Amino acid sequence: MTHDIVIRNGTLIDGTGAAAQEGDLAIDDGMITAVGDVPGKGSEELDAKGHLVTPGFVDLHTHLDAQIGWDPMLTPISWQGVTTALLGNCGVTFAPCKEEDRELIAAMMETVEDIPRDAILTGLPWSWEHYGQYLDTLESLQPAINVGGLVGHCAVRYYVMGDRSANDQPNEQEQAEIARIAGQAVRDGAVGFSTNRFLGHYMPDGRHVPGTHAHHEEVEAIAREVGAAGGLMQNVLNLGGDFEGEAALLRKEALASGGRVLFSITAGAKDTSGNRVRAMLDDMQADGLDVSSISVPRGTGGITGLQCGLPWRSGAWKELADMDFEGRLKAISDTSMSERLVRDAENGNAMGAMTDIFWMGDGEQPLHAKARSLAELAEAAIESPAETFLRITRDSGGKALFTMRAFNKNMTALANLISSDRCFPGLGDAGAHVSQVMDGGWATFVLTHWCKEAGLYDLPEAVRRITSGPARIMGVNDRGVLAVGKRADVNVIDYDNLHEKMPQIVHDFPFGSPRFIQRAAGYKATICNGQFILRDDELTGTRAGTVLRNTASA
How many domains does the chain have? Predict the structure, then answer.
């Protein structure tokens, strides 16, 4: 018997949490057709001896809604083992959208997710009004990996209420129409619905985005329609400002929808942080409610360095910020300018505390868990933080990068949070804040740090957390597991040598706009729908992905 592809002699980790087994895997017509001992031959055979064979990873939180228009390879996550990505998070989406509202909707995505509106307006065809038509457009773009989409509260509310959508509550007829459109979008293929109640997200005119202050009754009405169509309810909440109220809303959503509810969360500063969230999740699970959370699996918030945003803002630092990279590099080598920079840094106006800014190191792979803060480095060198920043930057030829940890500062608290069976690592935000932060390698970090180094998860559980676990939440039942009859989304991983590579600034967005990318080492192959999209850490150019549409109500 001949198969399309046979992967031989690998360590199979099937994504269910079951123990690893040595064996083979066969693929035919984009499906897994045999697991274990595979007789016959493959038209193509890959020897995976000494390597892991896992399902492709599932990324529940991306904002690749715009980038897919000009980068159908969907980097950087396609370099990091991801074969399925969920778009449309945080309530901001491009559909539904009336023709006359396109610029406003693009501008809203810019202010919330830091995606240039000119790139959005010129990089996408804007050939849709309703959500199902938008999915048709995504399909025509032939993405490298699978994508599914959430329909956003901001877009639906604006579609129904216009400019009143930001500040006003809908009347009874408008509320019914908002819920109807959300439900119809799910019946037309949306994976679910996303809403945003975070007080740090604004429209271009400074008002909070539509839906931020929506009454619970509106969200419940939406949940009933979305749940009836088999969709997911995704939330960005105001847990820091009204924990009890937002927790009550999650419960109402779960009861109204009768289905899956997801929310984003980060750990606080204390070691015991996360206990309240864990207790809430446990209580809801005990009550039979399907509520899950997702958190970025490391300290994050922004990247600073000579190539991007600087850690201080005033005086000589503002002058430095106005220069291009070569000008900046020359300026920090000038003694008088350096003295001014050090002096002005001492006057304050820093982007964060020096204890929260961590050097990524000077190796091929970034330091995250083992990184030292700028305050620690400065104290050890008997320097001011600005002197240390400038010295390291000069020594690196301007390439040094530092992580500013605004979220998940405490790794003990984070471990406590993501060890909950209902809190999954993820929240990489790929496609958003592209010149400010880079967490596209979150899945690789789960395997290398939380599994190999910290031992928070064993290998089967680590793989489950980034494959079948998020696939279930997304409602994708034919992926995320290595089993006969499942779709052939597969990774072959050199686990001993697996690691993220250092983020890099490139200028490949429309109009030369900058963004961070991040490659990885150790991915011998990534297969999507039975086709190799990556070999030996390099994309092949094959675009084998598909648009995953909700079929629960079909």
Answer: 3
